[in-house]
């Protein structure tokens, strides 16, 4: 333990408290400091200009919520909580996002990577983080990684760090709401933290906390549709993916980049080491894009310019997608169907408002009656039951308005009516 | 005017409203979008992890406050406000920070640049901003630049955009308080905005707003000492300046950088064009520093690593500085007095809590009695009078603790006692 | 108009602005000032100790929201808004609650009164309010009363003051959330106020405001179940009603009260004049109750003591009520089934989360596409559609635990198990 | 201890936590519940309509802050804190205001009472509070009363409950700011609570908390002048005092009141028992005043009407008072100098922004260096030193404008110019 508690001033939790030297040392590793250069919400800052907050902030927040929950468990001496697992849980909470890359969702999709894998590699391979953990206990790195992988011997620790009511989600909802400035994401976290309990292998909530949990789920619902799936953000993500796709394509074709920087080659070839991986941050990626504005390859240059100067694709919402027909039309008009049109149906994306089922899984929230009964949330909550059946299917088509207007004379009337006579 | 008002969601002002097409077009220029990649508080995010907000956000906020003030003037039909100056004022408010470079204060000091100059150059020379302004009126670029330079023919416009109670300061106090999470910076801006009045060539405040103005000045005082002059932030700024100094030194010595990128050469030689200047952003600088960690020059590599991995210099506070003596000691111990020790006396820095004088200047706040009398604030406010005489002289010495510890055996007892037996 | 705008500092809207002399004069009438002595949430302060705010605050808030909406309509010059109706709408908004009595819901139920009727009587009969209105225009009192009665010739004014998205509801959700301290009631009122439009005879919302309206409806849902229907509040309301019932019973029996004050007799006999009515406030009622603690009638004295000293009835929640059986059991045990047990099924209470139907009524929210189409909200919003079918049926039984325990030996096992072995 | 912690939802501290059965039982006594009917800020609700919060809320808040401080001390195991004093301190914190009467400051001044005396009498004499305390330990009532009287054997307990940085002041600043809606009163209480330490017989603050303490003192300064000494509030307090004065005068003259209620006679004669005292609350007083509007004594009736209907005295601010001359003028004009004019110089009122001195007293704030040095705050803080010398001398004259206007023809020109040609 530290001789004296250290604190970080945090706009969401007011203060983040550090009492363990191990946590303090982990925060000061270069791999953790790198999270300052990875935004929590990727390209959302192009829609909500306040959303410039980093995964560093979020990771501290997740750690702090976990610390508060465990401290409540210890203060009350609940027997179902394995006290010796405190440090494993705190480390896993702090480090759970350490493997995120720059503009994580887009880069993962473009290169078939998974940030959980990188998180585990950073913890297990030779890194400052690994050294800090190992100094405490040679088994600790593997234990922490097991929590991330959800294979840890104590399911309750896994459930605490990544369950349906976990510290991760609670922090990001509050934090993203704070920094974007929307007021959908605020729920009564103090009440939830006071009413969660360890119960057998699970984190459950006392029945009297049901309304606070309902409010938390409604907040999530609103945040997903109003912030995370905002079409302007999706547009910028799609431009981003196209940049990665085009650059990789060119690299594999042997194109000679005027500006090229290690370890981009290892990224394109899929041979990144962890040392190389942690060199990738959003400053690196943005700098590459800014330079590529001057690349001779017009497609790459145009996409980079759009991203850097926020000249994004426009979008229309449609009832259903007829992708095949549109690609033909695009082709006929002389546009590039691979790059000049993109389709998006955000309901395809992971979206886990609680859905009730007969057999509660790890993803279900359980209410506890204070004695020996637990009940799955939707059995008790009218509003959760009623929203759990919602299936939204929004379909969007994104396109470069300027390029489309340039070939207006070649477009069919139907396409013109659909794309040029609407605006957003 | 836009057919329909546009809004930006803003955590500080809730919404930023845009009604003029010119403002909308200026926001969409690449020079203005670049401000997204310049942090409002430079390196403060290394002290307050929430302080990742950009000059883009701040510039929108300054514009919004200015818009609200002018709209209040227009609604009430005050004669001393020249209504036809609305657009000039709004453009100057929006663009006043457009010339800021990456980590502005440090880069300016290192290279002898002034962001006001760059703001004017960007407005006057060939830029997207220039084009937007000129399209409205060929005289507009020069008018806006004149407001920035404080030479505009209408002093009230200058006073509105950069007076002692201007939109700039009001926004940054509120915004920096919000994003750092400290609660010193909150004052009653709504009351101030309701009670400012145009009076002859000045913006004045109705007497009944005196308490709100006092609170605003106290907020400034607190923010300066607790956020802007925070020693950890100063430490990171000093590391930053040393990096710039060392890199320039090496460049002028003909050192061959392993990683070097245009337009760094123009920066080092002092020949930057505006086109080159707007390529410089914080992503660019951070990427350079991250690469330079691998430079053969150990000094540069070490400084860059410290900055990127937040392994900053430690500090001690002293009653007075004996710089000469310390540099000798440093030298004797084999340390580099040019890079391994830094001195800082933040009271030397511009710090303008209101000071009263016999002749009110443009920097004085005037209270208006609602009829024909104005009175300089400190004549009326006990608390402003009492704080205006404060002269704080804090002195700090910054140094790399690890390097000092490495030569501990060569240090005199006095130096050891002073630097090694204290902690912060 | 006032020579200079007046303001009230308000924690919810920051400032309430008064520009019209008529509004200023209405606020200063004794009938409006009386609202300071009527709590907005009746007995809720016994559950949420912060909920001590008055109907005076709320009425100012409703006025302010209405003023902002109308001001937005005027600024944008919408043709469907009848500009000359501004003052009628503002007066109706300000005065809509002026007829509320002390602990309004309970007193209305106990004596078969309706606050809307009293509002109209105060406006139309001889009162300071009537005089202020009449001075402007002899027709104004009748116009304002017609808005309250929903019979006014301009349905859009009625819809603004009491529609499904009216200033009344928006203010009370925000205000009650603020003063109770719960955070369910916060929605983005600024966005709604910016996006409401006059459309034919209705107030509608632009489509882009749909999410804000969803959030507003979810807030209402949460506030109803967590604040307005809170069982402790219901318990105190039921004690209150029993006091009124017992006192009236005694009065009609010719009981001689030790403490009795005009105009209680007129209240009990149903002959209150408006002059008498405005003498009734919560101070008056509480003072009577405090004195009645010393009445010889034990039942009245006991109920009053419970209310004043907050020794409320306990409650249990049951799946369904078997009132007849319980009253028999109570009687058999020597308890008084008329006063020692109370039943409550809050779903019987007015509860108007939006329900969609084929024909939009005045109570439906309409979304407007910006051109010529309006669509009823639930057609477009998945979440509103999904929650609109919720029918909650909670049943509670309230009883004096001490009295029940005193006759424990006479209770059947079933009653003991049900009432004495549970706790809340 | 309670089997399960109980909580109160609180807008200022989010939750108030009760773990001890004694505290729970104290809250449920009739003497403590009576505080719900005493406003925290007396007549301030007539100036700030949100300020309807009760001493009940405030007392819970003071208890909660004290609980948090003690819990921090216990968690860290500081030796200077006498752990067995926990319950005494908590009870004293909770009960410190229990002796406040209705509109406390005015009634105390009118009848020469002191709420501290009543607090002690309620604790020591036969009351429900006394019984709860005595059940725990027969010595407890006397111990708690000794803390209130500042004579307790453990000075650190006294210092915690009523020192210069005590739970009382911290709660009321935050609470009054919240309910009035002004934003002057917000300081970083979490930081202060984290950095207070027991040190010998005192509560001190770690040096690193200096800025938070400065901010707390500045908040106090602002709250005093902008809320507590607001002239409209002072005006209503003076009307109130005149009512008490006139009623007592009439009572002693043998006047026969049409409405008179026990225990008013005991109040007027100065023979109140505690049982009688706790019958006095603000509902009681307001009801009396409302009835007295119909008393034949015109002076009493007029004053009561002014108070109930908020038709207060107007005021002017003057540089210095010439009371004697004005009373003569009033008399000459046929006005009553005893009731138709009132003087107020709020600097006469207790106002204790920190003043530095050579010998730190119990009222001084001490900074602790973490080792063995304490230093009185103003020695270290420039801003505290600079504001501690402020002596504000505002002088106000209050008068009934309508009465003055009625005798306008009899006023001298000087009086007319002074009182009738200004407005507020």
Description:
The structure is a homotetramer of 424-residue chains. Chain A has 424 residues and is of the alpha+beta class. Chain A has a domain at 6-229 and 354-388: Hypothetical protein af1432, CATH 1.10.3210. The first copy, chain A, has helices spanning 21-27, 30-33, 55-76, 86-95, 104-111, 115-124, 128-136, 140-149, 155-162, 167-180, 189-195, 210-228, 231-252, 264-269, 274-277, 282-292, 298-308, 323-332, 377-380, 382-388, 401-406, 413-419, and strands at 6-10, 14-18, 196-199, 202-206, 314-318, 342-344, 366-368, 374-376, 395-399. Chain A has a 4-stranded mixed sheet. Chain A has a 3-stranded antiparallel sheet with strand order 5-9-6. In chain A, strands 1-2 form a two-stranded antiparallel sheet. In chain A, helix 5 (104-111) packs parallel to helix 13 and helix 10 (167-180) packs across helix 12 (210-228). Chains in contact: A-B, A-C, A-D, B-C, B-D, C-D.
